């Protein structure tokens, strides 16, 4: 079954990932309508991809009876409200991560989804990467875990995609009142989660946590089967762009390290150890599609040491998550990343933030 899809928000992730991916999956999706608050972005993206239906508001797109599903690709602070409006209009909804910035907004979204019979999926594409799925299978016969290392040590997307693509950005044509409203909404949400008097390092730290760390922390939870029992320690530095956190998983410890800087590399991944086994997979920048990904599994005995490499896999994680969204809608396949799943992430962010704030205070 081919689904008619509408997009809300046509920025980097829409232009670089979702639109080309929907185009590749033409047998399953028809990109039928778009909306962006920037008229110039709306016109240029719609012209480029030959999309006829261009809506001036998200509400108008949601009211289109021909649209089956929408992708919410707008800034984080608008996700909850737009997703609820789309659900109310009877649409299936895909929301880019983070589902919401605050626990309260997420709770309302979870309730709206529960009261509907629509598929609502959060875009944690790293959890759909073939190497990640293979790692989950390997862990079924791995033996007791002894240690876990998780990391995002990266520079930001433009360094990569400026070499391969052109992204159209608003040319100063977003109405000033909308910009002010959006900023005020984001500030109120940051105040609610960080505290109105939180220093800049804590605010930036929370932005990095919801923006970047959410990928790894949700993948860690999915891979290991649960959230950590406790945050042992957490420290923010570099104006909030460096976070180191240590998690208590009862019988083992997991460590997470995050750093955003200007060194051109994307070093993200997860490594899991047992007494005689190790598995490791590494994510590359999401902004270049179809980069290869491998899973390495090492097993040592008294007289042998075997390293197996699964992959390289080239199917892009963004494609697999949209295929999963389609299967959930058309075949009732399980939805692995509903908004209720994101509650555990936001709870963990809050715990990390609390420990990091107390560390700063000390
Ligand atoms: N999965 C990933 O790896 C990944 C990567 C990048 C971004 N994202 C997520 O995707 C979302 C968008 O990020 P981006 O990098 O594309 O941002 P961006 O700033 O490049 O683009 C945002 C677009 O939304 C438009 N916009 C602003 N307010 C809007 C509103 N109220 N309604 C509709 N459109 C609005 C802007 O004009 C702009 O074109 C964010 O939630 C981000 O966290 C995910």
UniProtKB/TrEMBL annotation:
GO molecular function per UniProt: nucleotide binding
A Pfam family hit: GFO_IDH_MocA
SUPFAM superfamilies documented for this protein: NAD(P)-binding Rossmann-fold domains
Ranges where the Gfo/Idh/MocA-like oxidoreductase N-terminal domain occurs: 3-124
Top-level taxon in the UniProt lineage: Bacteria
Name of this protein: Gfo/Idh/MocA family oxidoreductase
Species this chain originates from: Rhizobium lusitanum
